[in-house]
Amino acid sequence: MGEINSAENYIRDGVVDGNILPLTSNCNTHCVFCSHRFNPPEVRVYRIFPRSPTAIKNIIPFIDPARPIVIGESVTRIIEGEPFTHPDIAEILHLLRSAFPRTPVRLTTNGILLGEEMVQLLSRLGNITVNLSLNCMGEFNRNFLLGDIQAKAAVNSVKLLKKYRIPFHGSIVAMPHLTGWGDLENTINYLSEHEAETVRIFEPGFSRLAPSELQFDHALRGKLESFILHQRKIINIPITFEPPCIGSLEAEVAGVIAGSPAAGAGLQPGDVITAVNGSRVSTRVQAFRKILKAANPDVTVTRGSERSIAFVIRKGRSERSGLVMDYDLDPKLIDDMARVARQRRARKVLLLTSQLAGPVLRQGLARFWKEEADVETLEVENHFFGGSIRAAGLLTVGDMGEGLSEYLAVRTAGKPDLVLLPGLAFDRTGSDLTGTSYTRLEEEYGIALELI
Ligand code: SF4
Asked: Ligand 1: residues within 6 Å at CB?
């Protein structure tokens, strides 16, 4: 009973926090890179049966009609499967559309069950964008990497999405060390030829429990970066890489969606946005959000050696511009840290961060931290998942404790008086993925802690 209640709470939290609506944990494939494979046994995640239309009706009051409804994306603690395996998917989509006639719906799918009838339904319901996790094209690779025995179905869904003019984005977990670079290139080309709006390429992440043949060496990331830079030059759609390579916080445009307001205004990949409606912007996140919120924003950019060029992006308030930008840093995060440090009257603040986020956070602190208190960052290694897992949301209290112990052991200038932990790693009760509360660290180290 306790388990059921917890899963229900996580489902409701996902809807309230992110408008993310889990439908089922069932899936029709077994991707080797699926985020729920090779987890250490202590991870507390929940598998859910297909949610009944009645359960969906009951959760409708928690959905925000002003934000896109997200289906098929993992809410951290709920194992999200393939939405089109749900026996009542058509009824649920109808239900949502009649409750929210104008709310955009974002559906993530592997495309295997996206036949003509289903694509026609998506087209009739309208305002649906598909995130298609195609991953690879070749029959052998699809079979071997995804456990997909009907390779042609997903590949064909790309043609159907184009035919019925459903906007879609392609995504690829890039494993060229296993599939070869040719398949990766073919998959990007195919998505581009069929007018995907963007292609998102993900670096794979495998825990220490994944078999050694799936693991890859660190050089792969550099090779993927060079490959993507080359593809961007020869293919005319935005290609992003996640986690992104953020060299600086300059608001550089990664790509521009064809036919979008930003493309119409003349913005180009590589432009650096310096101001929106006359007010300076300091990071990509800030620029992107200001542009999204504004109607017909005036955007100032620098392009190559040209000093400043002004554009007007003709669009409505909260309408997307078509600019594609990597996620770097929301300056509000530094403001929040500063507020907590002031409230706690801290003189020495230590920020625990993931290895991925560390360099960006240091740049943010150098630029935005104006407090008298000293602030330092500590990159925590993910020993719990191990392997190539480096995201902040997957750190555990154990990892943070190990990092803190090592830091304190060599520190001669005394303990920090406030330690900030990445809030992403914790649920609303302050528990990590293993169900351990962050307050354990407070008791163990006698230092004030806050989630940020
Ligand atoms: S399609 Fe998605 S949910 Fe299904 S196995 Fe692959 S990664 Fe996991």
From this structure: 27, 29-31, 34, 81-82, 110, 133
